[in-house]
Amino acid sequence: MAKIVVLGSGIAGHTAAAYLRKWLNKSHEVVVISPNEYYQFVPSNIWVGVGRMKPDQIRFKLEPKYKKWGINFKRAKALTIHPEGGKDSEKPYVTIEYVGQGKEGQKEVVDYDFLVNATGPQLRFDKTEGLGPEHGHTVSVCNFNHASHAWAELQKSIKKMEAGEPQNIVIGIGHPGATCQGAAFEYILNVYHEIDRRGLSDLANITYITNEYEVGDFAMGGAYIKRNGYITPTKIFAESFLAEREIYWIKRAGVYKVDDEKIYYENLAGEYKEIPYDFAMLIPAFSGPGFKAFDKQGADITDKMFKPNGFMIVDADYTPKPFEEWKASDWPEVVQHPEYKNVFAPGIAFAPPHTISKPFTSPNGTKIVPAPPRTGMPSGVMGKVVAQNIRDVVKGKATLDKLKHKASMSKMGAACIVSAGYGMTNGMAATMTVFPIVQDWDKYPEFGRSLTYTVGEAGLAGHWLKWFMHYMFLHKAKGYPFWWLLPE
Amino acid sequence: MANTKKYLTRITRGYTEFSYATIPTKFTRFMRRCIIWQAWRWLVLNIKILRIVAFGHS
User: Fold this and answer.
1) What is the residue-level pLDDT of chain B in tens, covering all 58 positions?
2) For residue A167, what is the enclosing H or E element?
3) Which residues of B touch A (CB under 8 A)?
């Protein structure tokens, strides 16, 4: 009987665990190991960050849910991976340390037949001096605690504006190589909306700071959309959204330091500049969780399993090559480790073969390029595909050498809906869909993507969609009736 | 938008990157909020996204 261990309870891990539990009978064991007490629907953190939602509206406790489903939940963090087993164990295993369930600090060995490494990103505020809500000067919306704190800080700025004091508000990317531009873009529009509806926009000097080569790159190399008789780059679309709201932007900027008054950045021209702020939300760099891996003899094989940034090596083509030679086929199809084939890394956990946006380096040698985004939709799809493949192997319908189900980011699309405002008629969204996420220049030689399924438009429709998705995905994550019929 | 006049002044007089951004017309802004048109676009976007999800894995 198979034992499947899932590390992480985010969108990819939770999706994989839920489907595995549904498809495999109770003689097979599904274990989820996560230090988090709650499942959180990360895209809705933006609404927590502007006080439109409470954390409880976007999260639920994992332990009771997993107990009901028959999933063995261990509230713990993984420490090491032993994919060949060890001196005392023939089976591969992970070591964990509990952070909850009354076992805080206890260590345990958990063996597995299949390992799904679906650990989300480590928020590396430490990579930028003075960044972050805990040890720095800026706020974040990367989790519900950070988002709640961001709202508390934003309220202070709003109060000052209500008292007639102008405020510099800076929102964007806090590291030369960070990703999640969509989240920063959505947050800045929501912050503007909250300020504008209070009649305070004249007192707010709002700036978007980003490491994108052009605004609208969104870490995907931008996209082209067919609109009003033209094929238009998303740069036009995104800049229009900002300009319409009098939000200024600084692009090609690598933030390297923040103090209590200013944000310091270097641009692609090699100039060192600074911008004052009163309220700043900057997204940090991400890395993998930093597990160590060991072989049967106890030798360190971390570099065989993980890239230096902590993300897991999978079935991608990691051969270094220039931007012009990048191909859609470089991207992994089954997110499976090439040697330890019972180990998978869906979602943010896998190491991308390269960025999607073209990398640039400043004359001072600083690489300023967004890391590839892996948002909810592809993470959910990858989680499901990993579950399908494990199910097929367990049931003898496939082998680990020949997996049937595939989900490459160069063959799947994604929707990015940047929605501001609240209510049925009081919102506005920029809706962007791309297909595929990673450009396929062989299939779509002119624009890299399908112009039929790559869409960008503004309006209430996207705002409604975002609302719909919030409730739909929480319904699915909670395992409510017919959850499996809902798309990822 | 609350400050149409203000941003247009900045755009036409600014000679910055901001000055060259595309700004929606009054009609475009109306269509963005027109319930009937947006209900149609909601349907279209839903179908496109569902098809994207369906294409996305095999």
Assistant:
1) 444 555 556 666 677 788 888 889 999 999 999 999 999 999 999 898 888 877 766 5
2) strand A167-173
3) 1-3, 6-7, 10-11, 17-18, 21-24, 31-33, 35, 37-39, 41-42, 44-46, 48-58
Give the ipTM of the model, two decimals please.
0.84
Asked if A449 and A435 count as a contact pair (C-beta separation under 8 A), the reply is: yes
The residue of chain A nearest to residue B32, with distances taken between CA atoms, is: A459
Beta bridge partners of A368: A360
Q: How many CB pairs under 8 A join A and B?
A: 115
A187 Cα distance to chain centroid: 15
CA A402 from centre of chain: 29
CB contact under 8 A, B41 and A405: no
User: Closest-CA residue in chain B for A458?
Assistant: B32
C-alpha closest to that of A94 among A71, A119, A69: A119
Question: What type of residue sits at position A194?
Answer: E
Work out the minimum CA distance from B39 to partner chain A, whole angstroms: 6
Closest to A140 measured CA to CA, from A117, A172, A182: A172
Phi-psi region of A129 (alpha: psi -120 to 50; beta: other; left: phi over 0): beta
C-alpha pair distances (Å), B46 with each of A61, A305, B35, B52:
30, 39, 16, 10
Choose among A248, A458, A459: nearest Cβ to B18: A248
A residues 51..70 contacting B (CB < 8 A):
none
- Quote the tokens at residue A81: 């991976």
**Residue A227, number of CB atoms within 10 A of its CB:** 13
Strands (E), A58-181: 59-61, 72-74, 76-82, 93-98, 107-111, 114-117, 122-124, 167-173
